[in-house]
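Re-run with default settings, no changes from the original entry. Doing this only to confirm the output is reproducible before filing.
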Amino acid sequence: MPEVDFYEVLGVGREATPAELKTAYRRLAKTMHPDAGGTVGTFRLLREAYDTLSDPVLRARYDGAGAKVVAVRPAPRPRRKFGEEPGFVPELPDLDADDLDWWQFAGEDTRVRHGRRRGPGHTPVVAAVAGMVLVLLPLVTGVGFSTPVLVVWLVLTAGTAVLVQRLARGYLAASRAREAYAEEFGGRTVFGHPGIERDELAERLTAELLEVYLTRLPGARIFHGLALPGSVFADVDHAVLCGKRLVLIESKLWLPGHYETAEDGRLLRNGRAFRGGGSGLAESLAAYRELLPGVALRGAMIVYPSRSGELTTADPDDLPAAPMTPETFLHEIGEWLAAEPSTVDHQALRAIRDQVVGGGGRAA
């Protein structure tokens, strides 16, 4: 095989930091990915270069072999990560319906409404019926009118006709919207798939959590693996849309302990700065606010223990990367989404569906 220099592939110097490697990889991948017009071979080489140089052990081995090596990476021996407990799988919460304030409210009306409810409800219908009664009353009773009363009667007749026409148009538009939605989306409520790799256990746990509990909201639509606008990567683990409210979610598998966010935005574990992982929620929220200007957004980081032991979080605050336990997420975010439990916003749904990496979805 031809010899290559992984540093040249990524376009970085030999002293590049992990952050610089990641930035270079993401920049090049946007044009070299097969979905963006690149070839499978070039993208595989780019990925090989990044996988090698981003791993400290493989990078040291690579550097020791010289600048020019063949593009074949020896399979590394499985290494146990710090804090990892082989075979350990965190348990998802098993909450009683009475524990969630929004549960009963969300299940009161299981009908899905297409579009956001902004109108005055039944008021136009009541007004139209009342107007029709006033219009038809003299015709049925045969009572005559004086000129002033006749003018009022004519005005009421015209107003009632206009109101009835608007109501008819509204119902027809809603019917067409439902038909278009059914043709485009069918009965699909879940789009995309959670990660299947060993290090994506947290994503699979959150996927199950969302489908067990948040599908209680008839209008909730769940997404896995969302790209930021202009990207081809799954930058956002999950998202849930309900009405005009969208939550972007990251899933983390971290050591047991107490997690919180300091006033300066730093993530703390047991009162000390936590350097075992980061968050891209702030960047993701900024990108999706620009993509969906009419949608209210929140971020949530769900944290699971990587081994046996207690994991707790502080009360959630307004910071986008505030860590939450699964229980806290269900209480806080579930209640926030339940403001419009039965509403599906077609425009927002299409925009988010188009960001699912691979564009796939599955019926649920």
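The radius of gyration is 28 Å. The mean pLDDT is 80.
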